[in-house]
Amino acid sequence: MELRQLEYFLVLCEVMQFTKAAERLLIAQPTLSQQIKILEQELGTPLFHRIGKKISLTDAGYILLEQARTMFQTLDATKEQIQQLDSLEKGTLRIGALPGELTNLVSSISLQFMKQYPNIQVHITSNEDIHEMLRNNMIEVGFTFSLHSDQFDQRFEETALYKEAFCYIERKDNDMCKDVLTLPEALSKPLVLFPNAHLCRRILNHAAKTEKLPVTPRFETSSIDSIFSFVEQGLGGTIVAKTLFDLYGTSALQAYTIDHPLLQRETLLITQKERQSSPTLQAFNELLAQELTKFTLQLS
């Protein structure tokens, strides 16, 4: 079994058509067919069901697909680590994060990282399915919330970074002479909130539902910048996670803690257990720990 054959196999699995796979590999289709046939003969079992011009993976094909991906992933990590043994002068760090404030937080920290290591390329991708991106080797590390990580998978290692509460935010000139609000008190005010599909809003809706309280915002928008702008202009207050206030709050705004056990969430860093962290990721994690101390968070 040769690496070249496995490379052909992976491309064929991706496009599921011999003609397109051969075009992508820049080889003749008969050559591709012959190499796949040799691979099947060496393994002693078919890797594809062939029905006319259509193909699909057999059970053996699925096993080889997973193992081949793992093998090439290990080879890529090995090459990267060898190149970076002496210093962090070269390298690429691929990061995945949930859309919204996590992407913004990671981007802010990545900016500091790139100032320290200007020759390192950093790619940040926003996606709702961090686990799938890790499975497909699209990223090296992912950031998500515990509420999004509800399917335990032994292939991943989850590291809790911090817990954060939700807070009510309004203009300072509306000072209420108290630091902590109850959920009914916060919901009784004019509110500018995220739409129902947003994670912050879903957490708020769930907490309100347990108390049988209505959530009736004056205005809804998916734009973080717009929410804080409207609050600063006096349109109303908002209820968001604490990191959003740390990232977007201005001196004109005041945050009040909301006393409710369900109004909190935990941020997780997720990696693949079988993949050794590259020197680039190790350096990023060190900076991450430093940067998180600048926020008023409950570090895990």
From TrEMBL:
Keywords from UniProt, A to Z, are: DNA-binding, Transcription, Transcription regulation
* Pfam families membership: HTH_1 (PF00126), LysR_substrate (PF03466)
Cite the InterPro entries for this sequence.
HTH-type_LysR_regulators, LysR_HTH_N, LysR_subst-bd, WH-like_DNA-bd_sf, WH_DNA-bd_sf
Q: CDD domains recorded for this chain?
A: PBP2_LTTR_substrate
GO MF, one annotated term: DNA binding
Could you give one GO CC term from the UniProt record? cytosol
Q: Which part of the chain is the HTH lysR-type domain?
A: 1-58
Signal peptide coordinates: none
The family classification in the record reads: Belongs to the LysR transcriptional regulatory family.
Q: What is this protein called?
A: Transcriptional regulator
Q: What is the lineage of its organism?
A: Bacteria, Bacillati, Bacillota, Bacilli, Bacillales
